[in-house]
Here is the input.
Amino acid sequence: MQVELQQIHKRFGKNHALKGVDLKVEAGTIHGLVGENGAGKSTLMKILTGYLSRTQGRILLDGREMAEADPATAAKSGIGMLYQEPQDFPPLTVLENFMVGRDAEPDSDRDRQRQRLNDLAGGLHFQLDPALKLEKLTVGERQQLELLRLLGRGVQVLILDEPTTGISDRQKERLFGALHQIRDQGRTILLVSHKLEDVVALCDRVTVLRHGMVTGEAQAPFQVPRLLEMMFDKPPETDTRSEAAARGEPLLSFDQVSADGERTGLSECNLTIHRREVVGLAGLSGSGQGLFLRLAAALDKPARGKIRTLGNDLGNMGHREFRQAGGCFLPADRLEEGLIPGFTVQDHFALAHNCGMATAKVLAAEAISQFRIRGHPHTTAESLSGGNQQRLLLSLMPPDASLALLENPTRGLDMESARLVWEHLRRQFASRGAIVFSSAELDEILNIADRVLVFFDGRIVRDLPIGELDYQDVAAAMTGK
Amino acid sequence: MNREFPMGRLGRHLTDTFLILIIVTVFTSLLLLLVGASPTEAFTHLISGSFGSWSKVARVLNVWVPLTLCSVGLVYAFRSGLWNIGVEGQMVLGAIGSAGVLRMGVESGHPLLLLSLALLAGALLGAAWALFAGWLKIRGGVHEIFAGLGLNFVAIGLVLWLIFGPWKRPGIASMSGTEPFPRDLWFPTLEGWRVSPFALALVILLILATAWILNRSRFGLNLKAVGHNPRAVVLFGLSSQRYMLIAILISGALAGLAGGLQVSGVYHRLIPAISSGYGYLGLLVVMLAGFRLAPIPFIALFFAALNVGSIQLPMMMQLDSSLSGVIQGACVLSALLVFGFRHLRRRGAAD
Here is the structure.
């Protein structure tokens, strides 16, 4: 199906988010949509899938105009989207998830549906056990199921939002293979991403958005520097590492620590992290690195073993004491765990700094300009975009912390913003204390960290200074090879 | 928008109130017509029965005091994200506490000291009862709605046991309650008025203090944060459990105070129905107020007037006095309707 968007405008109040976007995607191609955060990629896709109404403009499917749509009619016209977070039901089985909500030709015969699922999965070389509960699946497998579900519904236009986040390299290969196959069946694929390596590997054609406008298009084979030029005002540098400083005294030590939690738990973890170290935690999502950070931050308790943080035995300490001792923790879930919906930016500062509203307002205004948050002191947290919520979260970190534990600190930020954030974090914390961070992006870890811990299945399988690190080896260790 | 135009927000609230009243009036009138009664007559009786004379106004105020106290207390609990259904039982326990102190001091000769002690005991016992529900939630994992509801029944059982057991009237125990306290242990009222000016002043003071605490103080901001996202406040170095306990504690103390005032200022003894259902009614008041403090005194006054005014109905029109309950319930339902409608419209506008 050919998709054509003509002169799409979208205004949110005074904010002109899309300023006349034209996009034409031919049937049987994979078309990339790239741009930094806030460029308008998500807004444009939400308009196509009917989640947002457009202020102005036309959408043509195979030359026929699609009226103002809601998600249900857009789905009926054959438009389906694979979201970054799987939109599924963890307590149900794979088969039940596949069957749920199929609106065209309802068929509740489990045997027939199982056959359909197996056929579809086999065709794309996915291995999924229909009887397995979804909780037992990795993010990558859940994504595969989601893809099969969309195909089962007969989507003609498939939109993928950052599909390679949090999945293994092998799953990524499988996914790319499947996408090529789906394209060759004549379906249309739109890939939304800021990971250029994915775009280069996968797409036939690319459209670049910047500040709500199309700044360029390109045809495969792509020239990455040219794409970067279209995406950013200036091409970002990737390495913010300064001269490695001598490590200081121990700030965090794990002694034979085991704990339950996440999918894998954590078993027999031993290590020491010193002042002036920047430690990256690599691993597929849910391999134990999140649990590691929560244990270090006294948010979870170990089942066995001893943890010492900032000179204190963590035995009976809570997170409050951890903070008072100079630690801070940045969670990956922004609105769920990091911020308070309904609270404004300045409310958050009053809360974090325990100060009056007048002071909080000043602090908020400072943070807004320093961290380039698009919002005002009185904007509520939930009305900020994802990237701006992340910036707010970062700006709320106590500036004098000596142990910063960060879960995916640049999640949802584009390369330029991520670079600024890391400059700030290094300046602020690495000279005085230590930074321990996890990231879904191996590249980020390799670019930023001085020392890398690789997690696999709840164990630390590699602990290497950056100098002795080999990309292939880390990637292999992450997948248990 | 509303930030720059507070008048606009006030205007919107007034429109909402007007809408709610229209819906309620129409609904109640239809109901009255259905049972063959004249709506105008019924409404007239309601108004004259509540504001028709000074003594009736005093009676309304006597209902307003405990109802407002319970409602204001509930706002604290709601701010922290808790449903303190147990406010009814906390009021009963407050009444028991006050009655206990007053019984001990019948012969003491220091009535004012004793009355203050009685109110203090009421507040403390109400707070303790609330803390019990909070403790069950936080340590025992019992949802506060079930804990509160369960403790309400225990409280009623306790009050009946006292009235028919240890505190029974000399001679014969009866549903009319314990032996009344001597007159010098009654809360002082003005000449000819059956309402204590002290109680009124106390309630107004507590409303003002609450307004400051919830909207201006650090504690209020932290409490609100706990209610909005208990998981996140941990990372801000706050203990959500501690704030929840403090909130339910204050809630219980205010309900206990209401119970104490009922005993010392209105009934002058402990009766089985000492709470008069004001705890549950307080929940309706707070919901109707949209969980905000400012409308509570007015809504509580309206509800109190309905309660007192409806006493006339059985005598004058052979209607059951439960009409007041019907109107109160209709108010909450139509408020939910109007708020919900506004929410949908606002969301539509945001898209």
Q: What stands out?
A: Chain B has a mean pLDDT of 89. The radius of gyration of chain B is 21 Å. Residues 65-293 of chain B form one domain. The CA atoms of residues 50 and 305 of chain B lie 5 Å apart.
